[in-house]
Amino acid sequence: MSLRSLSLGALAAGLVALAAPAAWAQDLTKPLPDQPISPLPPAAPPATNANEVPVAFAADKVEYAQNSQDVTATGNVVLRRDDQSVRADKVTWNQQSGQIVATGNVRLIDENGNQLFTDRVELTDELKTGAMENLLIALRQGGRLAALQGQRIENGNVILTKAAYTGCAVEDTDGCPKEPSWRVTANQVVYDEAGDRITFKNARLELFNLIKLPLPGLRISTSGGSVGGFLVPDFRVSPSNGIEVSDSYYWQIAKNRDLTGTLHVFSKVAPMVSGQYRALTEHGAYQITGYATSSSRIPISGGNATSDRSFRGYVFANGRFQLDPNWSVTASIRRTTDRTFLRRYDISRDDRLRSMVDVERIDPNSYLSISGWATQTLRRGVDQGQVPLALPLIDYRRRFDDPLLGGRIEAQVNTLAISRKDGQDTQRAFAKAQWSLRKLTGMGQEVTFTGLVRGDVYHSSDNDLTLTDLYRGEAGWKTRGVATAAVDVRWPLIGEVFGGTQVLTPRVQLVATPKTANLSIPNEDARAIDLEDSNLFALNRFPGYDRIEDGVRFTYGVDWQFERPRWRVKANVGQSVRLSNRESILPDGTGLANKTSDIVGRTEVRYRDWITFTHRYRVDKDSFAVRRNEIDATLGNSQTYAEIGYTKLNRDIDEVEDLRDREELRFAGRAAFLNYWSVFGSAVVNLTDRSEDPVYGSDGFQPLRTRIGAAYEDDCLQVSLTWRRDYQATGDARKGNSFQLRFALKNIGFK
């Protein structure tokens, strides 16, 4: 065996050109080797001339014909330049003409990992011409491109004739050849080496060798990146807009920026345009999405549409920027022109849109947040003037080591200003210090001591505009002091049972807080109070800062965890008892109004990744009626599964809107069959009756939304047809049937 090094610009550049995916072989299903080219020759020495590109090669035999000035390498010929390599049975280089010809099982690999297979390749050292025959290229991202012939032209592009491309696998799971679900054919394909692009001229899409659709302007990337062009259109039928056809154009402005524009055409209403701009910067990323159209509106409460057309639209922008290892900025804007636009055009079903900005600084021992929040309500019957604007909200926390007892101290300073156009305004500031110490006894008990002090200052105005008495507070300046002491004891007991390991952890807690001024303070962030397993052992079981649970209480419960191969079970149950006779500010029905609370618990069961079951409950301490009953269960795998959710809140609270009773059933499922086919569906049913919620007006069985569909999905193609029925009308978002057809080609840049 002989090893040599050449400095041939033509050979090196020719390998670069040919290693890029710009070829076609008649057989897309040809099996390909997946191992690297071996043996590779050693790296070539540095070039002695700036215009020379060194190429290293190895071969079993090298011959030189002096008369013809041909250098011929035969037998496992391997050439390498930088990250490109080529293998062939025979390579001939004519020193006089500069022509290089590689023949016999030619395999080329470029710097991106794309592989080219051909019977014969011919090129010159000046790259003015080049020829290939019977070519097949395997792209690293999964596609295959084949052509009968390839020719390099003067500008450096490669022209392929009678070409085809597919992004599908050409082998089944057993390694047997199979026909791809789709392929793109074209009489001519142009490969742009500088732009890493392949452009198809007069391309047609063939589905299952039956359906043929034109694909004008199709381009794909050889490096796996995105390519601009038209995307596959979507089709939808809805009662509000009729037939909808939407098509998008994708424009890659730069490697870190792109823009997608979409035109939506409807049979019943005027067209709509939308666009999305995305950018990745040095410090973060952001995106801006917008919709715009002109149409008449139907009032949210129903009735006839307005006769005048007006502009309607929606904007959504968000981003996050990491300015340095500690400082970051997160922002989001969501605004729409009216309350029914998003539902009518099936963009979103949210009933409120939140906009925010948050500047954060985080280090190992401190946290600072300066933020602001604004909300646009889309709910019927809610006055936008009563919706709060929170600006600014400042929260600073810092942790210290306790030098005396060895515990941990956390200090917090918080300010909040809430304003409403037609409602109550509130400003709040407080400072808090919390000390905690965790100890382990000789018997294994975990004991945690906690002490907390806090001072509050409030100012509020227009308090009479708040409809719920419990939330108003008293107008003007108010101050409040809070002090809490607590001790929490856990005792984990570990043992074996049922062939697995269990951990039984009894837990008790004692919390004491002196009488606190609550009703004189406005309640902005502690309204939806309800006893749950998650807040049973909290120092303050109100969800925010504006209400404090005072008095002395004793809480007890037990946690149990069981694990064995494939199984895991977790459960907890507990209850609390107030040791003082002071009247509670908590409404009846929350589970905390009486001296002895209701019983709350949670149970989780998991079997591998096939069964997941979660049950959360609250049981009345006197009647044992179930006041809160939540069940979420999943059965199956990622292909075939069923999800069931049930929620029933039986609290009998009429005077507080945030704590209305509710009963709801949710279902979703998918069944896969015949390898690639599946049917799916989901439903949401409101089971609340008028006695539970007279405001909502449900009759006890009111479907809110159902969906049923069928889909075909293999490794490179996805087609789905979905039927959905909405049972409630909200303004011009009418109830009725909607149909949607989605079509996606994978590995080609089409959605």
From TrEMBL:
One of its GO terms (biological process) is Gram-negative-bacterium-type cell outer membrane assembly. It comes from the Bacteria. Residues 311-677 form the LptD C-terminal domain. It is found in: Cell outer membrane. Keywords: Cell outer membrane, Membrane, Signal. One of its GO terms (cellular component) is cell outer membrane. It holds the Pfam family LptD. Residues 59-205 form the Organic solvent tolerance-like N-terminal domain. Residues 1-25 form the signal peptide. Its main location: membrane. Involved in the assembly of lipopolysaccharide (LPS) at the surface of the outer membrane. Belongs to the LptD family. HAMAP family: LPS_assembly_LptD (MF_01411). Component of the lipopolysaccharide transport and assembly complex. This is LPS-assembly protein LptD. It comes from Novosphingobium chloroacetimidivorans.
